[in-house]
Design a protein that fits this description.
Two copies of one chain form a homodimer. Chain A is mostly helical. The first copy, chain A, has one domain: Winged helix-like DNA-binding domain superfamily/Winged helix DNA-binding domain (Arc Repressor Mutant, subunit A, Orthogonal Bundle). Chain A is built from five helices and three strands. In chain A, strands 1-3-2 form a three-stranded antiparallel β-sheet. In chain A, strand 2 and strand 3 form a beta hairpin. The longest helix of chain A is centred in the last third of the chain and has 35 residues. The radius of gyration of chain A is 22 Å and the shape is globular. Chain A binds a DNA duplex through helix 4.
DNA sequence: GGTGACGCTCTCCTTTAGGTGAGTATGGAT
DNA sequence: ATCCATACTCACCTAAAGGAGAGCGTCACC
């Protein structure tokens, strides 16, 4: 039961659309997995966490929180757990009181950070262009 | 009135946390803008749209939809509008019936696509590692 | 004159994201 | 005895994301 990408104009028409371009490129399984992984990894907080951890080497929970402005405790825990599960960070619990937990990047995490590096640079370089474009767009449609 | 990143343990204690690491790096305004732009641009659909458009050069609305599996019509319109506003794509409307609208990358869009390229490669290369890590993690916590 | 094509937009409605404020465990310091 | 620190977790709640399905406008066609 193959689902069409979205509902047809009105339900009984357009049973089929002319296939001007093949429906998708190659291996749909791998493609889906990669898209999925991208969705997970191209997350704002994940990217920022990667950044600050790469910068500081090792961070404790509250230090982390202070570096990531605007994140809630819950989100931070969640992001960090997810990253741990994905093998981006290691989480070391020192069994002392008060608790001491240290996070550091794995090799995998560092490599993703490096891959994102280009995007950060792009963002810094093109911030002005994007803002200008937005203003122009908004002025046109006003 | 500076807000703390999240609530203190119980409200009347911990008025202040020792500042072992300076609260943030440098220019907070630029940093915030860049983080914001990252949040906008590091969006799953934006990344995928960038990819397929880079691959096909020029796409009409329904062609686009067919390339982006699982996206709803609403999301596609929204993503495309946003990208147009940000100056990533141009939208050309041919005043014919039935309507014909073509999307293509701008230089800015292409440069972002190039910046993301590293992330795609990373995702393809490290898919297996991430999956292995997830399995190990889930097995441990079960 | 009914239907279909295209690229939307509009109205619901459900799901998810994410914030808030509190609680918990533990041992050392006061 | 009480307090405090840390790194959480939990319950609750609101806002935002995003899906489903329909409708629209216009012309060419059968």
């Amino acid at each position: 039961m193959s689902r069409l990408p979205f509902n047809e104009p009105t339900i009984q028409r357009a049973r089929r659309i002319a296939e001007t371009i093949p429906p998708a490129e190659c291996d749909p399984r791998v493609e889906a997995l990669v898209n999925d992984l991208i969705g997970r990894v191209a997350d704002k907080w994940t990217m920022i966490a990667l950044e600050v951890l790469a910068e500081h080497g090792e961070l404790r929970f509250t230090q982390f929180a202070r570096q990531m402005r605007g994140i809630s405790q819950k989100m931070l825990t969640q992001t960090l757990r997810q990253m741990e599960r994905d093998g981006m960070v290691t989480r070391t619990v020192h069994p002392v009181v008060p608790p001491r937990v240290e996070y550091r990047l794995t090799e995998l995490g560092a490599s993703l950070g490096a891959a994102f590096c280009g995007v950060w640079i792009w963002a810094e370089e093109n911030l002005a262009k994007v803002e200008a474009s937005r203003e122009a767009f908004d002025a046109k449609t006003e």
